[in-house]
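G., the chain you wanted modeled:
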Amino acid sequence: MNKPTLLVLAAGMGSRYGSLKQMDGVGPNGEAIIDYSVYDAIRAGFGRVVFVIRHSFEKDFREVFTPERFGGKIEVGFVFQELDKLPEGFTVPEGREKPWGTNHAVMMAAGEIKGPFAVINADDFYGKSAYQTVGDFLRSADGRKDEYCVVGYQVKNTLSDNGTVSRAECAVDDKGYLTSIVERTSIERKADGVVYYTLDGKDYPIDDNTPVSMNMFGFTPDYFEYSEEYFKNFLKDNVANLKSEFYIPTMVNVLVNEGKAKMKVLTTDSPWFGVTYKEDRPMVVAKIQSLIAAGEYPQNLWK
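Predicted structure as tokens:
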């Protein structure tokens, strides 16, 4: 049986954070959130981690996140998300600076991953239980196709006090399977205490307990084939839009709506937190320290 692979999306520019937050030390010995993610993945039985990065910061990133850093306990690989990595017949439009989105980032690993894999954001802390839950699902899915998973968190537990956040709203049937997933790019709690998302300049309320994706997905390799095929259609419709992005929820929605794949929505008792803005950093540092105090993690993660 293949050990699952952890695919870490670390190519984002961190425009709202103001720097390369993927490498920001938030643990007591300079550990980044990535370190805790890899540590939890190792505990959950993952055998390899692949980082999606950009050539512009490759040298600095590789010098930090080496196999030796992780004690040789997991294989390490790197792939690159760049604007010009497009299907034959397409070119980057003049003025395009924004990456092509999270699902484009996933596609960069098609030649590196041969078995079940989990996808995470580099700057999100998902927690031990979440990795174990996804790892168990992926081991059960090994050798099968069209059966995926996503970890759902209640939207009320995923907000920032320092600005709007992007979340993917999940609709779930009575058997726990996803029926739709919609990217909401501007969510916040307003002064009246209600959580809203903004669409076309208008605010719409969203229930506190609504499940949302924090980009922790589980896939099998057939997902790459679907993505390659649909990305061409996406580009035909959106290549001229300099801000268009090919999100994972975009691809998942197509597969679910067309009945080509099923996606189980998994629950976890792990805490989620992350750094969208610089002002989020003290909260993250404090929460990690509290987990260390509770015995969830050692004081020095890799010693």
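The first helix runs from residue 33 to 43.

Shout if anything looks off.
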